[in-house]
Amino acid sequence: MVTLDDISPHVKLSIGNDEANAVFGRGVAMLCRGVRDDGSLNKAAKNMGMAYSKAWRIMKQTEEAFGFNLINRDGAHGSTLTKEGTLLLSAFEQLERDVSTYAECHLPEIFKTL
Fold it and tell me: Where is the HTH lysR-type domain (predicted)?
């Protein structure tokens, strides 16, 4: 049997611009992290079990919505994050850590007050 002590928060975060319908969420972050770590959108997609064409489409749509590139594409030589891509990924990762830590710390307190 599950008790309240067994329940933990699961935070799904995104950052973006509502007017432009631009969203940087977990999926885009995972692709950017893969590009940063592996130097290739294709490798990032494969590591996620995703078709390269889908990863490319997601990145292209996200870049168009924001109005700037998240990755520099260099054909057969792979890809790297742009300055904006690096900043968005870093901000997303920091916010995700902070929000998750906050939620984990405060969920038990919230249960006690209800």
Answer: 35-85
Span 57-69, average pLDDT: 97
Residues, the chain:
114
Domain assignment of residue 33, yes or no: yes
Contacts of 107 (CB under 8 A, 6+ apart): 7, 8, 9
pLDDT in the model for residue 36: 97
Domain count, the chain: 1
Alpha-carbon distance of 14 to 28, in angstroms, equals: 10
Residues 6+ apart with CB under 8 A from 89: 29, 32, 33, 36, 81
DSSP letter (8 states) at residue 48: T
Predicted TM-score (pTM) above 0.85: yes
Q: How far is CA 25 from the centre of its chain?
A: 4
pLDDT at 71: 98
15, 98 contact by CB (below 8 A):
no
Q: Which CATH number fits the domain that encloses residue 57?
A: 1.10.10.10
